[in-house]
Design a protein that fits this description.
This protein is of the alpha/beta class. The chain has 16 helices and 28 strands. It has a six-stranded parallel beta sheet with strand order 2-9-1-10-11-12, with helices on both faces. A six-stranded mixed beta sheet has the order 15-13-16-18-28-27.
Length: 515
């Protein structure tokens, strides 16, 4: 798959909307390719997400790209997501460039000039990956037909045009209106952009595909482009979703369907859906356990019957603290602590459980009283802590990743994580209340079983963790299923030709084109 200048093949997976399925389709194509012996890498020039990950070299990138790297069976690097935007309050985002934060910026400021200036960096990263890999599968963002942003685009048709990448457009048929979305997306692009749009992929289809085929033929007649796949709807494939902001601000409750418990009881976990919730994927490993039911909550009465309450990470720690108080959740957490019922805080959630927060960086609120459930004082530093630490927790080896500005000073309790010699590394525990800055610790199977055993005992539940649940193996099964969907339900010959040869010539123009 070597083309001009020795570059590997490439493809851009765009979408009719946000959450159309670009991330999982990209991952599925990556897994399909790597099973064919192709050395493949994922790429997303610019990502807006509160779910992020830390690479081995200490760079922060979107979790979706880390998941896609796993699908490709390669180590994630900053090259795969050179620009990451982390939304905050007051219509601003932290700009993370090549894995390091470079400042806060408003949407107007970013789209008014900074974004366009980053196109060179994005293209250099893409070219470096294409020199190293046989193929690079790129993921777009939002819709390529956001005509108000086209001039400064560095993630959709902007890079497709600059790198001459063929484009397939994914549409979520479960939302309805997929034919109009495909046609409208194409018709709003300029002739030069349209020349790269090579086909469509229908995502989340339920029912008899033969009933869809007349519409697909009419779409081909209208646009001159074929539908290259109709992927059936499958539950449980929203792995490492990007949009924690959408989930938390709408006050939604996301529930996991628990399989039968290994012991006599189920274990009920309530996750506080704090504003600007980040890395809520931390609890996915709990939901993978047989008999563990995970739900996201935003009312005090919803935590009353929970066996464990998790306060997750957030990009707005002080704001999350105020939200917990406003909704009565702060009092509910205090009652749980007094009654010896389990509470776990992760990253920002750990910080709010402490005695005070001194923040002149994120919220600039100064000194704010915390919930006082842990003897911890947090000062926000301008430098962000990014790392992939290892340690020991509950007698088991654990590894995780750190992404935080808060520096914790612990004065009491016991450590959540220590080194092999017993020296405290991170976090704090007092009674049934625990907190840690480390994301990903629950993905360590042996530790998770020990932790859930303790939680069940403290909650008075006859819950027993299954002895053989492997979170890593379950993730691999999910990624293989994504690869199966592409292999079995997409025109892989057509995808292969696009990756190797680019968009075919002579694709017709669909009027009216970009205004």
């Amino acid at each position: 798959m070597r083309g001009r200048g020795g570059l590997g093949g490439g493809l851009l997976v765009a979408g009719t909307t946000s959450d159309a399925g670009k991330s999982v389709v990209t991952a599925g194509i990556c897994r399909w390719l790597v099973r064919q012996g192709v050395k493949v890498a994922p790429f997303k020039g610019q990502n807006m997400s509160l779910n992020s990950f830390v690479t081995r070299e200490g760079a922060e990138i979107g979790r979706a790209q880390a998941m896609q790297a796993q699908a490709s069976r390669v180590e994630p690097t900053a090259l795969m997501n050179p620009v990451l935007l982390k939304p905050g309050g007051d219509r601003t985002s932290q700009v993370v460039l090549m894995g390091r934060p470079v400042g806060e910026m408003s949407a107007r400021g970013y789209h008014g000039g900074r974004q366009e200036a980053l196109l060179g960096t994005v293209l250099e990263c893409l070219a470096e990956l294409r020199r190293t890999y046989d193929a690079v599968i790129c993921e777009g963002a939002g819709s390529p037909a956001e005509i108000n942003l086209r001039r400064t685009d560095i993630v959709n048709m902007g890079i497709a045009r600059a790198a001459r990448l063929p484009v397939v457009v994914v549409g979520d048929i479960d939302r309805g209106g997929v034919f109009a979305s495909f046609f409208g997306t194409t018709a709003l692009l300029s002739p030069e952009d349209q020349a790269l749009v090579a086909g469509y992929v229908v995502n989340k289809f339920r029912g008899d595909v033969s009933l869809l085929e007349p519409g697909l033929e009419m779409l081909r007649g209208l646009t001159g482009r074929a539908t290259l796949g109709v992927l059936p709807w499958r539950p449980g494939l929203g792995i490492d979703e990007e949009d924690g902001l959408r989930v938390s601000l709408r006050g939604a409750v996301r529930e996991s369907a628990a399989s039968a418990p290994y012991g006599e009881d189920v274990l009920r976990v309530a996750v506080c859906a704090v504003p600007l919730m980040s890395n809520f994927t931390d609890v996915d490993a709990l939901a993978a356990e047989p008999g563990v039911v995970v739900r996201f909550v935003d009312r005090a009465e919803e935590v009353a019957d929970a066996d464990l309450v998790v306060v997750p990470g957030t990009r707005g720690t002080v704001g999350a603290l105020a939200w917990l108080r406003e909704r009565g959740l702060a009092d509910a957490l205090a009652r749980r602590a007094a009654e010896g019922r389990p509470v776990l805080g992760v990253c920002g959630g750990y910080q709010v459980l402490g005695e005070l927060i001194d923040d002149e960086v994120e919220s600039r609120a100064g000194v704010v009283a915390g919930l006082g459930l842990l003897p911890v004082r947090v000062r926000f530093a301008r430098a962000k802590t990014l790392g992939r630490p290892v340690g020991v927790a509950l007698g088991e080896s654990v590894e995780g990743y750190e992404i935080h500005h808060g520096v914790a000073e612990v004065d009491g309790g016991s450590a959540f994580v220590s080194d092999a010699g017993g020296t405290a590394l991170d976090g704090c525990r007092v009674g049934s209340v625990r907190g840690t800055h480390w994301h990903g610790v629950l993905e360590n199977d042996a530790f998770r079983r020990r932790f859930l055993t303790e939680v069940a005992r403290e909650a008075g539940r006859r819950f027993v963790p299954a002895p053989d649940t492997s979170f890593g193996a379950l993730r691999e099964e999910q990624l293989d299923l994504l690869g199966d969907l592409v292999e079995e339900h997409a025109d892989t010959d057509a995808l292969w030709r696009l990756i190797e040869e680019g968009a075919p010539g002579g694709l017709p123009f669909v009027p009216p084109g970009a205004p």
